[in-house]
Amino acid sequence: MPYKIAIASGKGGTGKTSVSVSMQHFIRKQFTNQVQLIDCDVEEPNDILFFPNAKKKNSKIITQRVPKIDKNQCNFCKKCADYCEFNAISIIPSIKMAKVNSSLCHSCGACLVACEQSAIKETEQPIGLMNFYHEKNHINLIEGELKIGSAMQTLVIKEVKKQASKQSQIILYDAPPGTSCPVVETISDVDFIILVSEPTPFGLHDLKLMVELLKELQKPYSVIINKAGIGNRDIYTYLKQEQIEILGEIPFDQEYATNYANGSLLKTIPQKISKEFEIITDKLIKRVYA
Amino acid sequence: MMEMTILSGKGGTGKTSITAALSGLVQSAVLCDNDVDAADLHLILHPDIIEEHAFASGWKAEIDTSKCKRCDICLSHCRFDAIHTNAAEKLVINPFQCEGCRLCERICPEQAIRSEQYTNNYWYVSNTRFGTLVHAKMGPGEENSGKLVTQVRKKAKEIALTNQKEWIINDGPPGIGCAAIASLTGTDLALIVIEPSKSSLHDADRLIKLIESFKIPVFALINKFDLNLELSQSIANYLKTKNIPLVAKIPFDKAMVHAMINKQTIVEYQPNSNISKEIKKLWHKIQLSTHTIDLHPTI
């Protein structure tokens, strides 16, 4: 079984993506080629921007099962609407209306069980894409991409995660920001979580929310402090108080920030940063084989 | 009354710092934090809470193992893989995977499953030095962020109408998913914050496609524009092709972080800085242009 690591943060913009992309790079360099990166930030997948030469190998459409009511079979008993906890079905017997609002449907299948007339069938509706990228010795990336206008992030993440290669030794998930359902879906089956935070009041506040979530989920984690040097020291006090391990500190560096902005993050990594990532990778590998 | 939502496809571009700065400039406004998942605006506005409300986040099912006969009908019907066997070979439900569809409860022949409504989300009405703030706190791992956004916006609108305020300013969530959709539905205009990075532009492009489907006027600003002049220029060109007015170019300045640490808006912290001047200009431009926007076109 591959060892699964999620890179999460609570807050957006702390550097999840740059840490994810760099971790894949350094694990490959120091340890194994069998490391796969899965971009689970399906609303805004960005990992691929850091591999300008990568080729898309193929794409697959991700669909969601949405019920369709056959009005010829329907007797407008409303049982399906009663069963639907998401208010996705409206039935008005007097005008023989039976309608499904697909944007509210969670594809739970309750309406199918409810219907005694066998009037409901499911159809497949596209909600996103998964894209497979490959570049010899450099990248092994699967990306989930939510269809614009769809609100089914969690389903897209679930499908994308199923695509992970069994041959991988390590799988890295780049998680979405926040602490709600898409993040929970991403980290549900991981062995370890890296939380990326920045030493600012916003960074600390959102890190605390994430720690609260991980305590409830009872998952092991530690923290990378990104952009170290900006902000203040409150985050260090907090981590010490909570006895949370600092896996590493990536200093704020103008050149590195510019490389990030250009998408050329891996082309020239400033020495003080690559050194820090090498140490972090060593610590991680020890954990994988503990 | 007009309602503006501040968004950015990508997180960390500075939405909240800009929203906070605008909060101090808009004379007659109700403020609303729509980023219910990682609400940060209160860190600058330090609100005095005057109302607290629990908000149901949906149902979670639970199996009474003493009644369960292991027919496994629920297990075969659950599409969210939320039902598992534990070490004692009993069926249990993982509350984090349960979507609250209640199908298992309905089909259990032993009536061994019950669902309970979780109220782990809260929303608040508060007083701040810039006026009323409506905000929320979601329980970790909770669902329904879209519905919670709709709730806080509804309350903000009520307050704005009762008190005859001219504006509602929404600090939006990152992304383009349910929370972003719920933040945009029915607003009068959107302001997008973009920073000069490829990922920020990529995300803004996806966000703009979403906003286009709502057919509402959009303004954009580039934050930290001088970190990469070339990319800032490409963003400006891109906005031109989309006919989106670029209302401000805000320079990078560590003062923005210092203001945050000081729990102040940048306009309070350094009123005469370039950033503050740009933000004042931007607000002026938005106000001017709203006179020419037909907010409620007749069809």
Automatic annotation (TrEMBL), chain A:
Pfam families: CbiA, Fer4. Gene3D superfamilies: 3.30.70.20, P-loop containing nucleotide triphosphate hydrolases. InterPro entries: 4Fe4S_Fe-S-bd, 4Fe4S_Fe_S_CS, CobQ/CobB/MinD/ParA_Nub-bd_dom, P-loop_NTPase. Residues 65-94, 96-125 form the 4Fe-4S ferredoxin-type domain. GO terms for molecular function: iron-sulfur cluster binding; metal ion binding. The keyword Metal-binding applies. The keyword Metal-binding applies. PROSITE patterns: 4FE4S_FER_1, 4FE4S_FER_2. Keywords: Iron, Iron-sulfur, Metal-binding. It comes from the Bacteria. This is MinD superfamily P-loop ATPase. It comes from Ancylomarina subtilis.
UniProtKB/TrEMBL annotation, chain B:
This is MinD superfamily P-loop ATPase. It comes from Ancylomarina subtilis. GO terms for molecular function: iron-sulfur cluster binding; metal ion binding. SUPFAM superfamilies: 4Fe-4S ferredoxins, P-loop containing nucleoside triphosphate hydrolases. It comes from the Bacteria. Residues 59-88, 89-118 form the 4Fe-4S ferredoxin-type domain. PANTHER family: 4FE-4S CLUSTER CONTAINING PARA FAMILY ATPASE PROTEIN, MIND SUPERFAMILY P-LOOP ATPASE CONTAINING AN INSERTED FERREDOXIN DOMAIN. Keywords: Iron, Iron-sulfur, Metal-binding. The keyword Iron-sulfur applies. InterPro entries: 4Fe4S_Fe-S-bd, 4Fe4S_Fe_S_CS, CobQ/CobB/MinD/ParA_Nub-bd_dom, P-loop_NTPase. Pfam families: CbiA, Fer4. The keyword Acetylation does not apply.
